[in-house]
Amino acid sequence: MDFRQITAAERTDKMFPLQAYAFMPSPWPAEERDKYRERMQYYESAVSLVAEEDGQALAGAAAFRMQQNVRGLVHDMAGVASVATHPSARRRGLVRELMRRLLRQMRDEGCVVSALYPFRPSFYARFGFVGIPRHRTASFSPEGLSHLTRAELGGEVEQVSMADGFEVYDAFTRHLLTRRHGFAVFDEVRAAGFRNDRYWVAIARSGGEVVGVLRYRIDRSAGDLRASHLLTTGPVGQALLLQFLGRHVDQVSRIVLTVSTDEVPELWGTDIAVVTEGQVGGPDRNAPMVRVLDMEALTGTPAGPGAVTVEIVDDELIGGVWQLESAAGRLSVTKGTNPVATLSAAGFSGLLYGVLDPVEIGVRGLGDVAAVPVLAEMFPRRMPYIVADF
Prior knowledge:
One of its GO terms (biological process) is aminoglycoside antibiotic catabolic process. By secondary structure, this protein is of the alpha+beta class. It is 25% helix and 32% strand.
């Protein structure tokens, strides 16, 4: 078995058959292959690995070069995707070996963290990944926002096509990258592929500054307005975009909007009737997962007061004994001795991302944590919001 990195141009022959069989209706029409080939210009910066036997690709995996905010510090991130295996080669450990090679290569090339959307979470848990929240959807009638339609909010909303609004939309997401824990963006090569998506973009401005963006499409008259994430810098941007949505009364019957886990749509209006739900279930609706690839690169992360030495076990990327110390609100990570707590890679990643507290780590079998008060103060609970889908 040969394992090697392939170019974006090779992906159509090597990875498309694997991905199409795994993720698409099949047999697929010939034009799907041509569409895939056209998209490969946006994969030039991705790292794509395959396992080959006699020249035939039996399995593949890839990582997008991305960035992610983790507790206020922006890191290079490996966004793992395109993981697929030919049916005849499954249960042979090929994806396991590809993942091992891919994560190590991305770490060596500067990625500090990694994220993915798993087909089976328990499989990726073996590689040190831990789950983070999946986004929610809010469904409601535009009448529920009627109180906003005539309000003077001190701003305006511009509606443009994605092609015309791409630069503003992309710049705003990169601005949110610096502000929101868990937020992730693609590099410029991959992001350019979204320019020609068939979406409208609503751009909210106040005082001449962009304060919110919303990507959406309308399926039909009296149908649904389906929007992606409600992205804002605060309540003014949110109110402007909700006002814009409310003005679609008598045009659409329902608005379906993607929101974060800390959003509370039932408080958007006094009389709003809304269904907010999150659906998680494999293989296509699982919550994202994350992990740390480089411990020492976490130095500088905002953290609560405290100092503790931990051992991370059974992980070739971040395994070892580490001294974690917070001075002036910033984390310092160095090699240490005499650990007082034992963690798996998933356990530590859960602490860092704020989705698990030390007690939960012990309950879930992700570590033997004796320093619960210190770790809880250094890494307080904080829900990440990744947004990017890949």
